[in-house]
Amino acid sequence: MNTLAGTPVLLRLALRRDRIVLPAWVYVLAASVVSTAVSFRSLYDTEDARLRFAAGIAANTSLRALYGPLHDASTIGGLTAWRMGVFGAVLAGLMSTLLVVRHTRAEEEDGRLELVGAGAVGRRAPLTAALLAAATANLVLAALVAGCLAATGEAPAGSLAFGLALGGCGMLFAGTAAVTAQVAGTARAANGLAGALLGTAALLRAGGDTGPAWVGWLSPIGWAEQVRPFAGDRWWALLLPAAGTALAVAAAYALVARRDLGAGLLPQRPGPAAGAPGLRTATALAARLHRGTLIGWAGGLAAAGLVFGGVSRGVVDLVGDNARVADVIARLGGRQGVLDAYFGTMTNLFGMVVAGYAVQAVLRLRAEETSGRAEPVLATAVSRLRWAGGHLLFPLAGSAVLLAVAGVFTGLGQGAAMGGTGRAVARLVPAALAQLPAVWLVAAVALAVVGLAPRWSTAAWGALAFFLLIGWLGPVLRLPQWALDLSPFTHTPHLPGGAFTAVPLLWLTALAAVAAAVGLAALDRRDLG
Question: Transmembrane region positions (predicted)?
Answer without folding.
Answer: 20-44, 82-101, 129-153, 159-181, 193-215, 235-256, 294-312, 341-363, 392-412, 432-453, 460-479, 499-523
